[in-house]
């Protein structure tokens, strides 16, 4: 049995940083994720004049309800979409001129529904090159608030950004959402806003956020459920292999813990306890058809273990995975084909037909995407000879992944 200590959630750390920066008082974040995405977020806040004190186990943020402490800043958001979408929104509530840029891939990823909504709310926001993409400049003069419509069919992060902004506006926000993917991430946002003293109300597609600001607090960050998926999948593909992740149980905020339900449907033994989750490989791994719209960060995890299933695996409703750190449907298909597996893809689906894997060495093409590397590391448990062209890209969410996964391999495979 392996007990795996998973680092903090990227999504929760990013939200906690926003909320702490916007709150009235000093907030302590316990067990934040230390990775490229979250360190980029913290560095962005520092650029905007917020004080972020960092020790290995806790980060402390001096909140500024009035917004950034500097009249001008240049912020590099690296490869993190939470940083690239949440920070310009936070800056809009302040007073000053703030320019944001990001990595080449993040520059390609979409932003337009959010920047349109901000403009509809009166924010002066200019895209420097392509409309709806970084780099962009916000000339901030506070936000009055009011009604706004939003299409979050490509990314829930647009809605999260507006929800987080709501309490910083003068009159609050009433957001009408026309479409929504990755819905459980919005639940994380609402639960965390509650922890910082704000109650969002929802009537169908309308989200109402009151004005009045946030209250500082001490906030403990859950382990990252998407990261845990690689370790749970490792147990599922290893007959008799057992992995327990403490800190992720029945009350977990993250929808991605639902990946264990997919493993259960495939034949793994899954126990979700009050404060921990255990997956045990039974030797059985059935194929299935599954809709992953709510938990699409775990699509590559499932695609990477699909070759070991006893029947086809079809993953549906994941169009938005084409606009992540890479086009994940194409990246999974390409790498599975390199392994000799038969795969078909469509605009929003992938279907994998298990069969014997190619003999010999296979280099996995990472496309700079942490999830492609971490997912195919799981395939590597049963397919010796797998290597990666860019193993270091795991730094986005889990710099210590290879060491941790190596320890797990010793524990459950030998
Ligand atoms: O809000 C968040 O923290 C996230 C939302 C999801 O993105 P989309 O809503 O763009 O699918 C997820 O894929 C991403 O890793 C983190
Ligand atoms: C899509 C991801 O990240 P983000 O959108 O936050 O850059 C991810 O971590 O899989």
Structure characterization notes:
Helices cover 33% and strands 25% of the residues. The protein has 414 residues and is α/β, with parallel strands linked by helices. The protein has 2 domains: 2-209, Enolpyruvate transferase domain (UDP-n-acetylglucosamine1-carboxyvinyl-transferase, Chain), CATH 3.65.10; 225-412, UDP-n-acetylglucosamine1-carboxyvinyl-transferase, Chain (Alpha-beta prism), CATH 3.65.10.10. The strands form 7 sheets. Strands 1-16-18-17 form a 4-stranded mixed sheet. The protein has a 4-stranded mixed sheet with strand order 4-5-3-15, with helices on one face. Helix 5 (112-120) packs parallel to helix 6 (157-165) and helix 10 runs parallel beside helix 12 (370-382). The longest helix has 13 residues, at 10-22. The radius of gyration is 21 Å and the shape is globular. The site of shikimate-3-phosphate has 13 residues, from helix 1 and helix 6.
Corresponding CATH architecture of the largest domain:
Alpha-beta prism
- Write down the overall geometry: globular
Question: Regions with pLDDT < 50 over 5+ consecutive residues?
Answer: none
CATH fold assignment of the largest domain: UDP-n-acetylglucosamine1-carboxyvinyl-transferase, Chain
- Work out the count of structural domains: 2
In whole angstroms, the N-to-C terminal distance is 12 Å
CATH superfamily of the largest domain: Enolpyruvate transferase domain
Main sheet? 4 strands, mixed
Strand fraction equals 15-25%
Q: Mind telling me the CATH class of the largest domain?
A: Alpha Beta
The number of E-state strands comes to 24
Rg, rounded, reads 21 Å
Q: Write down the overall mean pLDDT.
A: 97
